[in-house]
Design brief:
Elements lengths: L1 H12 L6 H10 L5 E3 H10 L6 H13 L4 E6 L2 E5 L5 E6 L5 E5 L23 E4 L5
Parallel strand pairs: 4-6
Antiparallel strand pairs: 1-3, 2-3, 4-5
Helix pairs in contact: 2-3
C-alpha cells in the first residue's frame, strides 16, 4: 500500500490527478527505473486483473510524458518505449532481443561542428546505439 501513496504523491507533484487507473499505470511504469512499451503495460495490468482499456493506457502514457514523468524512446518503427529515467542519458538497444539499456551521459562524447539554425537552441542530445546478437 505504501507504493500507492508514494505514486499518488508523485503524480500530484506533476499535476496529474491520481485516479485508480493512473495509479495502476504508474505502478507499471514509474514505480522503478525501467523501459516499457504500451503492450508491456497492458500485459502487466491484465496480469493484475486491472480493467483498463488500451486507449486509457496510451492516453495516460502520453500524459505522463507531457508532465515529465516519462520520456519516449524511439528505437524501432514498430514500437515506442517509455523510460522512467527522465534525466539526460543515452541508450543501447539490441534489435534482436528488444532489450534497452541505459548508458550514462558521461560515457559518450558527442560533438558537432555546425551552427544551430537562427532562432533555435540546442535542447539536448540523445544517442541510441543499436546492437545485434552475434552469431556463433
Amino acid at each position: 500500500m505504501k507504493k500507492r501513496i508514494d505514486l499518488a504523491a508523485k503524480l500530484k507533484a506533476h499535476d496529474v490527478r491520481p485516479t485508480s487507473q493512473r495509479l495502476c499505470i504508474a505502478e507499471a511504469t514509474i514505480s522503478e527505473s525501467n523501459h516499457v512499451c504500451a503492450e508491456d503495460v497492458l500485459a502487466y495490468l491484465k496480469g493484475k486483473g486491472a480493467k483498463v482499456s488500451k486507449a486509457t493506457v496510451y492516453n495516460t502514457l502520453h500524459l505522463f510524458c507531457e508532465k515529465g514523468l516519462l520520456r519516449t524512446i524511439n528505437v524501432d518503427p514498430e514500437r515506442q518505449f517509455y523510460d522512467s529515467t527522465t534525466y539526460d542519458h543515452h541508450h543501447l538497444y539490441n534489435v534482436d532481443t528488444g532489450e534497452l539499456i541505459d548508458v550514462d551521459h558521461a560515457d559518450i562524447l558527442v560533438t558537432y561542428s555546425f551552427d544551430m539554425p537562427d532562432g533555435t537552441q540546442h535542447l539536448g542530445t540523445e544517442v541510441i546505439l543499436k546492437t545485434k546478437t552475434q552469431e556463433s
